[in-house]
Amino acid sequence: MPTTENESCPDCGFVWDNVLLVEVPKRLEVGTGSFVALLARDDAIVSVRPSNERWSIAEYAGHVRDVLLTVRERMIAATIVDRPTGLPIFREERVALGYYDLDTAAELASELRVASGLLVKTVRSIPEGLDSRTMNYGFPSPTERPVTWVAAQGVHELEHHLGDARENVRLRTSMLA
What we know:
This protein is mainly alpha-helical. The protein has helices at 24-39, 43-46, 57-80, 91-96, 105-125, 147-176, and strands at 134-137, 143-146.
């Protein structure tokens, strides 16, 4: 297995090894609450992109929802199947093809809570000894990853894109001022 020790996100500094499995539920709950609060803002801030290079807060929320659901399924598969390989989530294609266009902020808030809650329950339910099982994970490059890393990836996606959404609030607010 390639070494991934102290691997960090070049954009937000997240370090997967710094997240203990026992911390994942609380971090997901806190991050989800913060994201839901952003979705309650003015529609001009939530649904409009501040630039062509950035997604809207609603698009980030849809992506995070889908990632949390995907992470949950990957974790379950890794505890059942020897070294499964997860399918790509096709993040850019989902946005480009308009799969988030019909999502309302209220629906996204509800669905984000559900997706996060399901992942929290899954993390809390992992049978003893199965947290070290591995899977082939394609992000950021194809690498064999333990279930604990996959759980931390859910936290990373939520916290990373929460940062993106907060930056969008700043950018959109300054544009509307």
